[in-house]
Amino acid sequence: MRALLIGASGYLGGRVHRAAVAAGIEVVPAGRQAADGRVVLDLAAGPDAVGAVLARVAPDVVLNCSGATSGDLPALVAANVDGPAALVTALLGMPSPVRLVHLGSAAEYGRGPGEVPVREDERARPLSPYGATKLAGTRIVELARAAGLPAVVLRVFNPVGPGAPGHTLPGRAAAELARAVRERDAVRLGGLDAVRDFVDADDVAAAVLAAAVGPLPAHGVVNVGSGTALPARELVRTLVDVSGARVRVEEGGGGSARSADVPWQQADISTATTAWDWRPRTPLAASLEGLWRAA
């Protein structure tokens, strides 16, 4: 199998790259710049340019790990809406079907049905520009699927592992803990009342591979999470425990607006388990230990 991997240099894309190579898949990494052997592919260039790259690479599957998590609205729309639109337009124009695995986000759900696991058929009501643009990208992929494209969207919850970005709670907490240890200070974070579903980043990569080689599920969206609801406060306490540091944690208020608007979230992962026999295998403490070592 030959896979075209878009976003290979990113937090999740890098893990998908390593996992795919280890599984014996021929991986062609792609990005906007020709670095580290990557094929130049800029989704912003439009369907014709994307189609030319697809024709040259001739992949069996496209793994789209690209997108933007921050920035102003035009930047989010360009990365999370226009990019997927160009990609699926080009894929629909290929002479033979090419499977697409596209990474979505739990932010698409917004406030869920309460303290119960959220299913893929739950009404999506995103509360942030990021969530809204990711949902728009998902809808575009679903439309392409209805037009005949073999595609699936993985709605990823909260990945944890080495290199977690600073805008995520795990990445922010690890950086703040490292600072506190260096300066012999307290760990200072915002409010930690929110409950989230944290999943190991390598387990996410395994789900991407399962979606690439396994049967296409009847539903075009599949949750990828741990299937466990964990208070953010407990995640930080576990991180401090695995670090061995003797520091106190100080919470500085209400936290982010998104945390207040979405106080509780957990994935129902039964679709992925049934379709691909995929399940998270990495304990949270092991994920956090790797995160701490990297920090």
In short:
This protein is α/β, with parallel strands linked by helices and 295 residues long. The chain is 42% helix and 17% strand. The chain has a domain at 2-159 and 200-227 and 266-281: NAD(P)-binding Rossmann-like Domain (Rossmann fold).
Give an account of the 3D structure.
- This protein has 295 residues and is of the alpha/beta class.
- The chain has a domain at 2-159 and 200-227 and 266-281: Rossmann fold.
- The protein contains ten helices and 13 strands.
- The chain has helices at 11-22, 47-57, 73-92, 129-146, 169-183, 201-213, 232-243, 257-261, 270-276, 284-294; strands at residues 2-6, 26-31, 39-40, 61-64, 99-105, 151-156, 158-160, 187-189, 195-196, 198-200, 221-224, 230-231, 249-251.
- Helix 1 crosses helix 6 (201-213).
- The mean pLDDT is 95.
Provide the fold topology.
Layout (H helix, E strand, L loop, with lengths): L1 E5 L4 H12 L3 E6 L7 E2 L6 H11 L3 E4 L8 H20 L6 E7 L23 H18 L4 E6 L1 E3 L8 H15 L3 E3 L5 E2 L1 E3 H13 L7 E4 L5 E2 H12 L5 E3 L5 H5 L8 H7 L7 H11 L1
Parallel strand pairs: 1-2, 1-4, 2-3, 4-5, 5-6, 6-11, 7-10, 8-13
Antiparallel strand pairs: 9-12
Helix pairs in contact: 1-6, 2-3, 3-4, 5-7, 7-10
